[in-house]
Amino acid sequence: MSSSAVQKSLVVFGGNGFLGRRICQQGIQKGYKITSMSRSGAPPKNILPSDNQWVEKVNWKKVNIFDPETYADELATSNIVVHSLGILLEGRNYKETLNSFPGSKNSSVFCKNGVSSISPYPNPMDKSIYNSYDYMNRQSALIACREFLEKTDPFSKRTFVYISADQNFVGIPHGYLDSKRKAESEILQMKQNFENFQPILMRPSFMFDETISNDFRVILKDGLSLLNYVNKNLLNDTLSSFVRPPVSTQKVARCIFDKIEEEKFDGPVLLEEILKH
């Protein structure tokens, strides 16, 4: 079999989440072998009947990322890893806040072994770490990335996609974006120690799903779109540091695969580039 006929393997941490499911869908449609890793190991809920066509083709795997033995084998045989998990708000009521909106769901994946400054290793029984920007948005990505690079062939191209953020949303603590930017910086630094490493840092703004019409995100999307129109057309972009256009999870997923397939690309992917898809 020629190398061009070999099916590429891709792992999505948080593949049953709001964005993760669309990454899995796009990967299946493009002919990738897709494995979703999550705490439940279950497919996403509240999907359309048409989604069953790709959902049944994904390998839905239950893992505890605080225990790398539960996912190390999958990483060793994968060309690409996508880290699509994290928290928008810290605090024990984060999930309850999200789930108070109709149609809202939240899923997370967690990790174990320490990386660089992670000491002592997080205790998986300590529920407070699940609501920490540093653990969930930064350290989980670094752990997954290093585990991936250490387990895979250094002579082959290894791609790690990190879902970062365009900028802070109004009302969201600065710790959210700080944790994302720190993760970006440390992932990029790994290029110094690992050959054939392609880090891709996606920076979407507020995301919505094109197929969902009764979710609270649709209301926020419409409001943000209106504000962005006013800012662009009436205020000469004076509010660009506060008002940014929303983007669909489908566009983010399509952009991810376009960047994966760009042989020479690495680094941040800005919102303006994502919106073109």
UniProtKB/TrEMBL annotation:
Organism: Pachysolen tannophilus NRRL Y-2460
Superkingdom of the source species: Eukaryota
Protein name listed in UniProt: NAD-dependent epimerase/dehydratase domain-containing protein
Classification via SUPFAM superfamilies: NAD(P)-binding Rossmann-fold domains (SSF51735)
GO molecular function ontology, one term from the record: protein-containing complex binding
Pfam families documented for this protein: Epimerase
A GO CC term assigned to this protein in UniProt: mitochondrion
GO BP terms, alphabetized: ubiquinone biosynthetic process
Classification via PANTHER family: MIOREX COMPLEX COMPONENT 2, NADH-UBIQUINONE OXIDOREDUCTASE 39 KDA SUBUNIT-RELATED
Location of the NAD-dependent epimerase/dehydratase domain: 11-84
Signal peptide per UniProt: none
